Amino acid sequence: MTENRKVKAFVEESAILLQPNQIYWCDGSLAEATQLMEELVLQNKAIRLNQSLRPGCYLFRSDPSDVARVENRTFIASIDEKDAGPTNNWVHPDELKATMRQFFRGSMKGRTMYVIPFSMGPIGSHFSKIGIQITDSPYVVLNMRIMTRMGKSVLELLDQGSDFVPCLHSIGYPLNEGEMDPLWPCAPIEQKYISHFPEEKLIWSYGSGYGGNALLGKKCFSLRIASFIAKEEGWLAEHMLIIKVTNPLGRVKYFTGAFPSACGKTNLSMMVPSIPGWKVETIGDDIAWIKIGPDGRLYATNPEAGFFGVAPGTSVFSNPNAMKCIQKDTIFTNVALTDEGDVWWEGLTKSTPKHLIDWQGNDWNQASSSKAAHPNSRFTASIQNCPCISSNWEDTNGVPISAILFGGRRPDTIPLVLESTSWEHGVFLGSIMGSEMTAATISNEIGNVRRDPFAMKPFIGYHVCDYFNHWLSFTNRTKEELLPKIYMVNWFQKDQEGQFLWPGFGENARVLQWIFERCDQQVDTISTPIGKIPNPRDLNLDGLHISKNRFEQLFNIDPTSWKKEVTSIHNYYQSLGSTLPKVLKEQLEKLETYYT
Known about the structure:
Elements: H1 5-18, E1 22-25, H2 30-42, E2 47-48, E3 58-60, E4 74-76, H3 81-84, H4 93-104, E5 112-120, E6 129-135, H5 138-147, E7 149-150, H6 152-159, E8 165-170, E9 193-197, E10 202-206, H7 211-214, H8 217-233, E11 236-238, E12 240-246, E13 252-258, H9 265-269, E14 279-284, E15 288-292, E16 298-301, E17 306-310, H10 320-325, E18 331-333, E19 336-338, E20 343-344, E21 355-357, E22 363-365, E23 378-382, E24 399-407, E25 417-419, H11 423-431, E26 434-436, E27 449-451, H12 464-472, H13 474-477, E28 485-489, H14 509-519, E29 525-528, E30 531-534, H15 548-554, H16 559-575, H17 582-595
Parallel strand pairs: 1-5, 3-18, 4-9, 6-8, 8-10, 13-24, 24-28
Antiparallel strand pairs: 2-3, 5-6, 5-7, 9-10, 11-15, 12-13, 12-14, 15-16, 16-24, 17-23, 18-23, 19-20, 19-21, 21-22, 25-28, 26-27, 29-30
Helix pairs in contact: 2-5, 11-17, 16-17
């Protein structure tokens, strides 16, 4: 426990509202995690995998209604509706709290209320922020232990007077005496609420036990609330990977990259380069907190301590480092189970097992029409397991960023790599990012392209136009020449037969090499109306058999496609309202002179 009065008051008030059977303060220890997991195994809520194949690994299956983030049930409850903006669902804080209190009242009857003290970022770093999550889900406790720095060391900081973000969570399934508990208790979809109160730095989540809906240190704190805090304090909280890139001469640069969920971010963060002498190491795969350092450059840290990665598509071919990372001490959710007691998902192996138990616990064979693993099935693994983790991933001062990458799944229009002409143009490129919809959210629009600015559309904790202005303001906060170069990349272009034009995965190191060398002004560019592309002689294609025609397709700036793109951007900007920054309107007008 702690002597921090605010923490004690938060816990006591929550207990009065939630009415749990007992209160348990988590210490984050291995013994605690082991005991919790054993209890879940005995209750058939967790499946112990074959320990000779995957030591310390377990499988969970969620309710079919609780498999992903629920964006339509996610709210930004700012006092004034206009502060939430057009990309967020808004309800007045007083109204939302009144509604949620009705659900929260008595929601932990028959359950244990766990108190999770956690730090986002290295303990004691000037980057870091503390949270206290209250939950009735041992699954959440086990995942938060992996994903954050959790336990006694955080309580010590609180005892010294550190502030914290209160995070209240309940699965929304009280138990009456003698009532049978389902394997995955949760509330119906219409009762799920993932709510953020930016002005109060407060998070309330009810009804879901899955992923970013329930692990409140992740998207809720690290992005939605942190982005609001970052605007107030003059830094950035971003949906970005961070990598360390070393060239054959031993020179090092750090890049961040923003990609919507399930668009290859984890694969890029753990890349094994295909070109000799180049090395990529992981700082983080999902979230970056970025601040201006004493020298005027931008420095980034990964506030998380683990990976909550999408399983389908992950394999020895696509991400060998991830496969090593999840070999032990990993929590798997909604993947399939083999007859040998191992895990399986689509894309894991070239051949499909003849028989599996699918993610819902049913017999599955090759004739089955459904997927064996849910498309948004996940693995939770400690970043310490990662074989390519950088030795300085926890540097309390962060790492200096040389380049920022934006990307998404676009089968056409966007070239393989594009460099912005300025910071303002780079912010424009970030603001117009688009990607095919993925299974990371509950949606009926999978496959369609939606605008996802900075890969932050679901995660900005305030008005999107104010967010754009905040990015633009960095030219006033430091010298523009000290800011990172900004790039747009697209590994996902397809030919007329629907085949990928670029091999991707480890071959993406060739694009990283060009960006690395651009940061040192070692190679030049060709100017186009949408930005700068590589001179063909400067992109390293040694050993890669790509025809001249295919190469030209990768960098084709098709006027017909861009005419449609400009119209789409124009319509998108209109949907954001009258406060869109003038600078971005001017960037669009420049494009319109070419493509209208």
